[in-house]
Specification:
Blueprint lengths: L16 E3 L6 E3 L2 E5 L2 E4 H18 L6 H24 L6 H14 L4 H10 L4 H21 L8 H9 L1 H4 L4 E10 L6 H19 L4 H8 L10 E6 L5 H8 L10 E3 L2 E11 L7 E13 L6 H16 L4 H8 L10 E6 L5 H8 L10 E3 L2 E14 L2 H31 L2 E3 L5
Antiparallel strand pairs: 1-2, 3-4, 3-13, 5-6, 5-8, 7-8, 9-10, 9-12, 11-12
């Protein structure tokens, strides 16, 4: 979300322009960077600054010096603009219908109907049309990553064989939460530039060791997309982290910070936030038996109507209605004939929204209405167990783990190449 600071009267490719008026001059918005054939304006930069400063304060992260944060955010705007330009070249755009579904989900996560969510944003001074387009941009960049990076990751049978044959990899079930900092190194960096970037990473590490907040240092130094969120990486098993991070995390205690790590993408520093669990028994994986009721969203049933209907069904279940009977009567799913029974589910068998809600439930508990790309669900967990995985399932899980651990590295490398190929002209210092 970004707060509107002012409305530019005119965008021009000049550092700064003042138009004389009869009473007083009006300062026109100016360009702070040119990316290929497009301008980034001071208005855009200040708009992003307001948003990030608010987010950092909400998280309790100390703010970096303003000029440092300004430079970091301009670099982030440049990388985003390069990706959006490429998306336009390849004809990638998120349609309005898909965007509307995502906005409803955001409103639901804030426990508001969409109309109330929009009013709340506008009350805070956030322009709704601009907010919509920012969400569309985020979705576009995510889709671009899936299409241009993740879909091209190749996992060979040999890699799977090696993974399964190495118990240190295949049994790393500990769930870890990390924060990280990346100082990117251009592909053709000469020794002088390489030394400068190494020195930048060393300065970041020195600040952390002197007691400066890791999130503040990330916001000041990191060039990763998650820099402004303190460099936080979503918790995941060790075997699904990039190998460089997994190897470093093994030797860290919670709160510990690594030395400077080197990869083809640049210099890295990681901090271990938390570690949960430990080595799994080889070949044993968790399964959940669940049932659900699904109301699909389509041309005839809107998301709000489906959610309202689900709320009514949840009230009936809370008053001891029979789950299987309601599933047979109302669910828009092939499982309806079986009372909504989905059988035994492995991790990854369902979409992420459904799986997260299911995993959070106790046995016998019924969820609140949950939205997924298919519609609205009510979920009940019936049993959980650890089961011996068959060879086919083991190979599938190994492929998923290898793909996930390669994904971040591949994306960072792709971003670096895109940024290196772009024409970028900085004008931030043209005060």
């Amino acid at each position: 979300m970004k707060y509107t600071l002012f409305i530019a009267l005119l965008y021009v490719l000049l550092p700064s322009v003042t138009i004389a008026q009869p009473r007083q001059p009006i300062v026109i918005d100016r360009v702070v960077a040119v990316v290929n054939d497009e301008a980034i304006t001071l208005h855009e930069l200040r708009d992003r600054m307001a948003t990030v400063e608010r987010q950092l304060r909400q998280r309790g992260t100390p703010l970096p010096p303003r000029e440092v944060l300004e430079k970091q955010l301009l670099d982030r705007l440049i990388v985003d603009r390069v990706q959006m330009q490429f998306a336009k070249e390849v004809g990638l755009r998120i349609p309005d219908a898909e965007l509307d579904v995502a906005l409803r989900r955001i409103a639901e996560n804030n426990r508001m109907p969409l109309a109330d969510f929009r009013l709340a944003l506008e009350k805070d001074g956030i322009d709704w049309r601009r907010f919509r387009e920012e969400i569309r941009d985020e979705m576009t960049i995510s889709r671009l990553r899936e299409r241009e990076v993740e879909s091209r990751i190749v996992i060979s049978d040999g890699e799977i064989d090696n993974y399964l044959a190495n118990p240190q990899l295949a049994n790393q079930a500990a769930l870890v939460a990390l924060s990280h900092i990346i100082v990117r190194v251009p592909e053709q960096a000469d020794p002088v530039r390489l030394g400068q970037l190494r020195a930048r990473a060393e300065e970041a590490l020195a600040r952390i060791k002197s007691g400066q907040d890791f999130g503040q240092v990330a916001a000041s130094f990191s060039e990763a997309p998650d820099a402004m969120s303190g460099g936080m990486i979503e918790p995941r098993p060790l075997d699904r982290l990039p190998p460089l991070y997994a190897e470093a995390a093994v030797s860290l205690n919670p709160g510990g910070v690594s030395s400077i790590l080197r990869s083809p993408a640049g210099f890295h520093i990681i901090k271990l936030i938390e570690r949960r669990g430990g080595s799994a028994v080889a070949g044993t994986i968790s399964q959940t038996r669940a049932r659900h009721i699904l109301i699909k969203v389509n041309e005839l049933v809107s998301s709000d109507e489906a959610q309202h209907k689900m709320t009514g069904l949840k009230e009936r279940l809370d008053n001891n209605a029979d789950f299987a009977e309601l599933a047979r009567l109302y669910s828009n799913d092939l499982s309806a004939a079986k009372g909504g029974d989905l059988g035994w589910l492995y991790q990854g068998d369902t979409v992420p929204d459904f799986e997260r809600a299911m995993d959070a439930l106790k046995i016998g508990e019924i969820s609140k209405p949950i939205q997924s790309p298919f519609g609205w669900h009510l979920i009940q967990v019936q049993e959980r167990k650890n089961a011996e995985a068959g060879d086919e399932r083991k190979r599938l899980l190994a492929r998923q783990a290898l793909r996930e651990r390669k994904s971040d590295e591949a994306y960072e490398d792709w971003l670096r190449q895109m940024r290196d190929r772009a024409y970028v002209e900085y004008r931030l210092e043209d005060r």
